[in-house]
Amino acid sequence: MRSIAFLLALVSLIACSTTQSVPTSTTPNVVIPTPTSGEAVVFGRVLSSITGQPIYRVRVAFAEVLRNEETAIFVDDTGLSPFAETDLEGRFVVPNLPPKEYVIVVGDPFGLNDVVRDPTTGLPRIWSIEAGKQIDAGDLTVNIGV
Question: Pairing with 6, which of 20, 65, 112, 132 sits 20 to 30 Å away (CA)?
Answer without folding.
Answer: 20
